[in-house]
Amino acid sequence: MRNINNSGKLVQLHSYHERSTNRVMPYLFFPFYTSSDKSTVSAECLLYFHGNAEDIGHSISLLNSMRNFLKINVMAMEYPGYGLANHYQRNPHEMKENALGFYKMVNEKLGFPHENIIVFGRSIGSGPASYVAGSNPNVRTLVLMSPISSIRDVAGDHTCKCFACFIENFFDNV
Fold it and tell me: Could you give the CA distance from residue 11 to residue 102 in angstroms, rounded to a whole number?
């Protein structure tokens, strides 16, 4: 574990081994301490899946604000091909598997019960967030901010609609 000081706010950089993809994936942990001696953290956790064209480093200010406003722990994983995991090739199928592995690690290894985990997805992060929540019906809630309905719909909005039918629909959030 490494501690990163972000303008006086404690942010912890961790990594976990995702067995299904055999990758070591980085994530940020923003603990919300419930005791003055910082020995106890909140029993609730928000898992944040970021948007496209950004990485977890771009989200530090937002995640810190979410932690302080909601008074819960916040965690954000990196996707293959982004930020600290840019040495991996971008792959939407592995992105979903890594997201599911991240959720399982938070639940099983860190001990956050399903009903205390909020899954939050922004933009393209709505894909892995929806996949995680759909695979774990006991999560506390799913929050989607500026979600995409599907990759195919996004491609159709930016190109000829007939071109979109050739795009694999790996995030079908509807």
Answer: 18
pLDDT tens-digit series, residues 46-94: 999 999 888 888 899 999 999 999 999 999 998 876 766 766 676 778 8
Q: Quick one: fold of 2-149?
A: Rossmann fold (3.40.50)
One DSSP character per residue, 116-138 reads GEEEEEEGGGHHHHHHHHHH-TT
Provide φ and ψ at 65, rounded to 5°. Answer: -65, -40
Top pLDDT among 92 and 15 is at 15
How far is residue 76's CA from residue 28's CA, in Å, rounded to a whole number? 5
Q: What is the DSSP letter of 131?
A: H
Q: How far apart are CA 168 and CA 148, in angstroms?
A: 15
Backbone φ and ψ of 166, nearest 5°: -90, -5
Whether the CB-CB separation of 128 and 170 falls below 8 Å is answered with no
Residue of higher predicted confidence among 31 and 39 = 31
**Enclosing H/E stretch for 142:** strand 141-145
Element (H, E) at 63: helix 60-70
